[in-house]
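Running co-folding for magnesium ion.
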Amino acid sequence: MVVTTNEEVELLRENAIIVSKTLAEVAKHIAPGVKTITLDNIAEEFIRSEGAVPGFKGYRGFPGTLCISVNEEVVHGIPGERVLKNGDVVSIDCGCIKHGYYGDSAYTFPVGEVKPEVMDLLRRTKESLFRGLNMALTGKRVGDISSAVQDFVESFGYSVVRELVGHGLGKQLHEKPDIPNYGRQGAGPKLQEGLVICIEPMINLGVKNVVQASDGWTIRTSDRQPSAHYELTVVVRKEKPDVLSTFSYIEEVLGPERII
Ligand code: MG
Ligand code: MG
């Protein structure tokens, strides 16, 4: 949506902070031996304690509060009995609704000791998100965000998922415009002052192709190599993008040694 009042911005910021804090709460419990459904329950309880409701639960029939996607799973994994193992990477996407507005944020966490090449994928995917966020300036175009993400990650030989993209956010979870993580500088719709968007690079270590699992939800890489996903919400502004959500709560939990 395009925010026109400070009140709207602050309501969206409140949601953005709730999902940011929920991911931090979940981060406290991520470890080898933990079931993904346990993380989901922690998230739901926390969101409700903040006076919000889970944004994904029931969305087009999705059963969880979180989308939990492990290793080769890119997004939309369903929480369940799967147990996290040492060396996994787990992408957690969280949505909430409060005052009729959405929050939506994602972070990929290492579980125990993760291979250096996969840690690099995580770190660089997160960096690509910030490169995209820096382009969220009035008068720039969607392609300026897309190309900032794509050019950075492809320089390391990674590939950008095409089928799933960032989006506008507001009273709906997915609003116009789409924010692809691939594209050309100067192309696409102009970014309007006050536009609220989620930027969410989904970056694969191997090929760009993805397939949907038989559960009807989970998207995984076709070559079964790992994928990473980070997401924040930003308001397009003239001078400086106003980033509504934050990874700072997560990073406080992870501590200096485990920050990606
Ligand atoms: Mg999300
Ligand atoms: Mg999103």
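Result summary
The helical segments are 6-27, 36-49, 116-133, 142-154, 248-254.
The longest strand covers residues 89-98.
Job closed.
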